[in-house]
Amino acid sequence: MSTDLQFEAETTPEPVEPEKLSTRREIKKISAMVKELVDQQERNSKQLTQVLRENINFQSQVRQGMYREIELLKEQQRGEQFTPLLKEIAAVCVEYRRLLGEENLSDNVRRTLQLMFDQLEDILADYGSELSISRVGEPRRPLLTKIINTIATGDPTLHNTVAKSRRPGVVRAGYPLYREYVDVFVYDESLAAAKSDQIRND
Predict the structure, then answer these.
(1) Residue 107: C-alpha distances to residues 93, 103, 111 (Å)
(2) Which of 51, 77, 87, 179 has its CA 20 to 30 A from that of 187?
(3) For residues 6 and 75, which has the higher predicted lDDT (pLDDT)?
(4) Residue that wins the pLDDT comparison between 108 and 30
């Protein structure tokens, strides 16, 4: 019997004091809270990293868009800034090109003038300008043309149409740097009546 009592004494766990048991529970609780805080912090860090990455991409896109707009604005400003100069170039190019038709020019002078006019036209083209020449019979464009002569006609369908292009114009973005010189048909009722009388007499 003494042996059984000894064995029982050795295997019986020691009673845990209430204070120690409470402390263990608090430690486990705190450990769980710490683990939850660490996990939450990791999730927050991932979310923050993603937000920062998206924000960087957004800022990059905004900067690229602003850069394109600024460059476009600069190009527009450069064009507007040079408009007076382009008008002068257009006037020289159009008004003096007729010198090439002079018979008494030497070959060297003619080649020099031709080269100069070609260079002037290249400058105009670089800034989006082009020559404008109306065809006979097409409606006159008031903004782009200047009337030199009017030609009476008895045909009402020809009224305010181009009879002749005397000097080409230069147009940039729909606006004239140099207005084209044209002759224009103008309807005359008396001519129409005279033509009708002639037809009846015939």
Answers:
(1) 19, 10, 6
(2) 179
(3) 75
(4) 108
> How confident is the model over 171-188, as a mean pLDDT?
94
Q: Please give the Cα distance from 76 to 7 (Å, whole number).
A: 102
CA atoms within 13 A on the CB side of 179: 12
pTM of the model: 0.56
> Exposed e or buried b for every residue in 111-141, given b needs 16+ CB within 10 A?
eebeeebeebbebbeebebebbebeeeeebb
Query: Domain 88-201 is of which CATH architecture?
Result: Roll (2.30)
Question: Around Cβ 89, how many Cβ atoms within 10 Å?
Answer: 21
**Any idea where the domains of the chain sit in the sequence?**
16-80, 88-201
> Considering Cα of 187, then 161, then 175, then 96, what sign does the dihedral take?
negative
DSSP state at residue 154:
S
